[in-house]
Write a structure and sequence with these properties.
- 4 copies of one chain form a homotetramer.
- With 278 residues, chain A is mostly helical.
- Chain A is 71% helix and 1% strand.
- Chain A has 8 helices and 2 strands.
- A two-stranded antiparallel ribbon of chain A has the order 1-2.
- The longest helix of chain A has 39 residues.
- The radius of gyration of chain A is 21 Å and the shape is globular.
- The relative contact order of chain A is 0.15.
- Chains in contact: A-B, A-C, B-D, C-D.
- Chains A and B meet through β2, α3 and α4 of A and α6 and α7 of B.
- Chains A, B, C, D: It is a multi-pass membrane protein.
- Chains A, B, C, D: This is Transmembrane protein 45B.
- Chains A, B, C, D: Its main location: membrane.
């Protein structure tokens, strides 16, 4: 997928998940704080299971697409005489999707049963991000300076995500850590877009000189701007959710956020069991 | 042991221990969870001591084999005029075995007395894995690209094991951490096999081109597949143990797992003391 | 700002903040210890908000100065035919200031409302320091040996600051950690001065031979001396604050430190709420 | 001090301190465990203060010796026309001693007053070890392969010591961590000896070929043997102290270990205050 679309697509997924997580974690934290003050509770277990199912669905489509596009490997791993590998790039992308699929499955298992403790979902997300970064690392050797540089920034966003996920395995419900993970997902998403626009400029724009030192300097700085933007979006969403809840509390009327956010009614609520386990 | 057998053998040991640990940690966790619900308890101290003794036995055999095979060093470190080192490879393998022997001894000391706190066994396993990785690191310089690359993957599995062991010194009884360590043992085992099959293809198969870039790319991806397999095996074993215990609870009859898993009968049981200490 | 003034200025800011923090954390810790013994309490919330506002003010001035000095970019990012980047150095400095501005804003939000938990201020300071170090890292490639070496020492001070800030997100009110952060701020400040005096010797002194190995060796050692000095200053300030409070306790009279340190009067004091949250 | 004596001397100091610490931490842990069972307590505060004073004394002698030996710098930093640095090697060693002196002073402050919390002593030891490693790192570039390699092993022992010291700042009274620090001190000591004997073989022995690959392989393995030895010595000392206390408890008679180990008599004992603070 060495083209603009091949960078826009994964970038959009990360941005979408980043936006959704910024809302989810904000609601989680605010409803947790309200709990102390004796207010309503939300049930997130079903939401998490649905999120896991969506991840499984998307990645399954991704794997099938990578395998069965016209110029895909069609599940052949090697062929020819002398034998050579078939479309390793597509196989690598399939492998990345596979681990995000496992991560989605872990979400479902963690939140739909008491089989595994909370934290497994974060651990598997960390593993999936690690595999993504690990495979990218051997992607860009022997390419021009700027190409390597711009991908090394991506690796930083990915491995920072790995680190934050692994810390989350042990530290639950830390708002700062959760919002950090959110901002890294947004950063990774917008940076995928940036890579696409730099390496495959659309609208017939002028090509970037991939060996110019000042371009490298600009890209380094640009990465910081992307992160400032990611922080801004995360902060905005948190603030909007906060205001919404404040208004809701004042008017004290029921809301229907849709999905399966329901008021907590009794002591057998799974969320309570969850908190007991922690 | 630069041949197929020399990679199959250590690989098999790691796979065996990985499988055994996946069962052990699953039983441990499930019996711990049952405890809260007022069910039976298992005594793992004797099992751990036996495990330590088995490790000491295996490694002792390993050291003796490395020293006294026909082309071994027979405990000579240097000889000849001018003096030169005798069979450094065998000495290095003996050294690795020595540290796993110390790890086994630490298991015995930790679980057969109250001399040392729990955690020493994990610490010494971490040291043993570190020494293994440390000695491997200087093994493969000046070799072809693919040979170095495939061994660097092994180092990743080893040092991830070191990290998880050191965290386990401080964090006891964390299921995710324990199963992570299990999956890394399985990964190391199957990857030893993979190295053997790549570098010394059996059945007169075609040799791998050790300087082909696409081979390197495939091996990188293959390492991820091995880890997906390790996760699958760990999850399967955990699930099987879970089902077994569920059935057992339902029928409420005594089971004899063999070994020395015995019902916990009184408050003076060492396992209780152990949990008190933590 | 590749001149003496361009290194003296940021250095002075870090020294100023380091000195201020050494006083602030000393008072915080000593009043915390006194609390146990049933003595007076100080309210630091307003002080922290003022500190944040000062940071926002300074960095805003910094950004404007970098943009609108006579040879600055005046907010133009690229120009000319063929297009080229305008004054990337100034843009990079503006970016650094921007993140310290965000850090100042985070201070204000953290301490003036209950919107975000304590720790956000340290986290954002860590991010700001990381961005500073990240941009510096690509600053000095292709320069003479000593220039690179002296900047790599600066990076060590910066990244040690990043690490200590991130640990502070999880570990609050640890005196050793707080004073470590203080000493790193002082180190960074005095080292900025050292860089200035080495690369742009004032008073027409002899130039340093930037490729002489013994100069590199001296600079390495000199960095350690700077840190010894930073430890000394931190220890001195802590000791002076300690003595001041001891005298104060003995005479048992009210003091007016100025700023907004006020005696804690009632249970609704925000500082109490803060400690409850932790 | 590029001779045999210059490596034997610091090595001996680390071995001495390692042996002493192995006894100190063993007594500390065993008396802590006995406390729970209602037995005697020892007062370690005075011992720690004396240890700090000894460190200050030794390092002061070290600094003076490095400065005022016949071919030392006699406190001159630069001289000559054109100006050049005077005896940088001696200045570097003085700097290392200076930080161990600060560490000794921190020991005294930590244990003789309540000014600073426990943990400062470990933190400053970590800083001192870091400075030692930091200065060594730029010591051996441009030297033969084996010389660099054997010093890089030393750096591993030093930086592992830094890491364990920094963890000890947060984790007090963890026996495994304490004994790990002990074993690293012993390792550093014996490895200093090994470096001396390899680079400056005494008794007119044959010189080592510093560019022979098999020598490098042997030294790597030899480092592991040194660590096995360090583990053995640590375990032996712990076991001997354990046996001594067991006998003591059985006979229930007073012992006079000398130094200032005294029975804890009353609630105002500083050791109690210390445990309260933690």
């Amino acid at each position: 997928m060495a083209n603009l679309k091949g960078h826009i697509l994964p970038g959009s997924f990360f941005i979408l998940f980043g936006l959704w997580w910024s809302v989810k974690y904000s609601i989680k934290h605010i409803s947790r704080t309200s709990k102390k003050n004796g207010h309503v509770q939300w049930n997130f277990k079903q939401v998490e299971v649905i999120e896991g199912a969506v991840k499984v669905g998307f990645t399954l489509i991704g794997i099938l697409a990578e395998q069965f596009v016209p110029d895909g490997p069609h599940l052949y791993l090697y062929s020819g005489q002398p034998r050579s590998w078939v479309k390793l790039m597509n196989w690598q992308h399939s492998t990345m999707y596979l681990f995000f699929l496992i991560s989605g499955a872990a979400d479902i298992v963690t939140y739909s049963s008491t089989l595994m403790p909370v934290g497994l979902d974060r651990f598997m997300l960390g593993i999936a991000l690690f595999v993504e970064g690990f495979l990218f690392q051997y992607h860009t050797s022997h390419r021009p300076m700027l190409d390597q540089h711009i991908h090394s920034m991506l690796l930083m966003a990915i491995f920072a995500g790995v680190a934050s996920s692994f810390v989350q395995v042990f530290v639950h419900d830390n708002l700062i850590l959760d919002l950090f993970a959110v901002s890294l997902a947004l950063l990774q998403g917008t940076w995928f877009w940036q890579i696409g626009f730099v390496l495959y400029p659309p609208w017939g724009g002028p090509e970037w000189d991939l060996n110019d030192h000042s371009n490298t300097m600009f890209i380094t700085m640009c990465f910081c701007w992307h992160y400032a933007l990611a922080i801004l979006i995360t902060a905005m969403n948190y603030f909007l959710v906060h205001c919404y809840f404040k208004n809701y509390k004042r008017s004290n009327r029921q809301i229907g956020i849709g999905l399966s956010l329901r008021k907590q009614k009794n002591a057998h609520d799974p969320l309570l069991n969850e908190s007991d386990e922690e």
